[in-house]
Structure formats: C-alpha cells, structure tokens
C-alpha cells in the first residue's frame, strides 16, 4: 500500500490522517507539500511512531510545488512521478 499525506503548515491534522491510515510493514508513506519544515516534522513523527515497530516501512519525503494552475490530471501525474 502507498499512503500519500498532504503536509500543511500545521501538521496536527496530517498526524491524525497518517495515524488513521493503518500503515504497516512493506507500506510506503509519502508526505508531500510545499513546506520543508512541515515535511521534516511529519517525517520525524512517523519515524518515532512507526519505524520502531515496522522495520520494513518505506517513508519518503516528496515536495510538490503548489501550482494553482494545475488541473487534477496534472496533479495526479506529479504524484505518480514521485511514487515511481
């Protein structure tokens, strides 16, 4: 399973979304957003919560520049490019 979490400036809702995603071994978690600080904070949270329990959890930070002009198809294509 691949979980993509949109990281905002306030990561409290992002923590809840990640916690409710029911991730486990072998899953890939990718927070995406435009704030490097928020991405780093969410990554640190995930490491503290999940990586001690799930050794095979793939946690990657991605950064998508928020462009108001992107349509849904282009936004999805950008996310797919990060997933690889």
Enumerate how many helices there are, as a single number: 3
In total, how many domains does the architecture comprise? 1
Query: How can the largest sheet be summarized?
Result: 4 strands, parallel
* Mean pLDDT over the residues: 76
Uncertain spans: none
Total beta strands: 4
What is the C-alpha radius of gyration, as a whole number of Å? 13 Å
β content, as a range? 15-25%
- Kindly report the oligomeric state of this protein: single chain
- The succession of helices and strands, N to C, reads EHEHEEH
What percentage of residues falls in helices of 4 or more residues? 40-55%
Based on secondary structure, the structural category is alpha/beta
N→C terminal distance: 13 Å
